[in-house]
Design goal:
By secondary structure, this protein is mainly α. It contains 3 helices and no strands. Helix 1 packs parallel to helix 3 (about 60-85) and helix 2 (about 40-50) packs across helix 3 (about 60-85). The chain has one domain (about 5-85). The protein is about 65% helix and about 0% strand. It is elongated.
Length: about 90
């Protein structure tokens, strides 16, 4: 088997960083018990980090980009919630 193209390798690396960061945020107390608007975000986050939902080497580049975009957008929202709950300044 040949190595995947560099673009696919870069997407894979960025995706791993994205869902790793998102998973760290999901492990924090984001107030899902008190805030019903946070609950669907948490559910979506766990869906995205689930290994069966991640792109593979067989995923077309466009599908991997869409996944990476979804992870980035949700991670940004979770990070905002985390900073607000903990009185931190936005990064």
């Amino acid at each position: 088997m040949t190595d995947p193209p560099v673009l696919v390798q870069n997407i894979t690396a960025e995706t791993a960083f994205g869902y790793g960061t998102q998973y760290l945020l999901l492990c924090e107390d984001l107030g899902a018990d008190e805030d019903p608007e946070v609950r669907p975000l948490i559910r979506k986050g766990y869906t995205l980090v689930d290994p069966k939902n991640r792109p593979t080497d067989r995923t077309p580049s466009f599908g991997a980009f869409l996944y990476l975009r979804d992870v980035a957008l949700l991670t940004r929202r979770l990070l905002w919630i985390y900073t607000e709950r903990n009185g931190l300044s936005a990064p």
